[in-house]
Specification:
This protein is of the alpha+beta class and about 120 residues long. The chain is about 35% helix and about 15% strand.
Length: about 120
């Protein structure tokens, strides 16, 4: 099908410029499975490049005969942190080691920083 418009749902952290840059090569093109997969990969790779390793682009079931494509982006978020009961780590220590915020997009760099901080704690 020739796709004339592409709608990104759930891509709240993407700027208008990023959206345009990612979508423009696919607009007004005849998209088959290979091209659709390339679009999803481009969007997902953009998130991965920003360290947002739990964010992914998906195609929901839809009718493409109208030339309108919907892409669903799930931006992975951190629900919470809790220490393993056998670790001896307190909730406070864990919270202080993590530089990010609960309910925010989960960034690999923040996870790496938390691991570094936890590794520095006396055992």
């Amino acid at each position: 099908f020739t796709i004339h418009t592409i709608e990104l749902k759930g891509a709240d952290s993407l700027s208008a410029a990023d959206r345009d840059r990612l979508l423009k090569p696919f607009i007004d093109q005849c998209l088959g499975v290979t091209q659709l997969n390339a679009l999803l990969k481009a969007i997902t790779d953009h998130y991965l490049g920003r360290g947002l390793v739990t964010s992914r682009a998906y195609l929901p079931q839809q009718d493409l005969s109208s030339g309108h494509l919907q892409v669903l982006v799930v931006e992975g978020r951190l629900e919470g942190l809790r220490p393993d009961p056998t670790s001896g780590l307190s909730d406070r220590e864990l919270a202080m080691a993590f530089p990010g915020d609960i309910d925010q997009r989960l960034n690999l760099r923040e996870i790496e920083q938390m691991v570094d901080q936890l590794n520095r704690l006396p055992s």
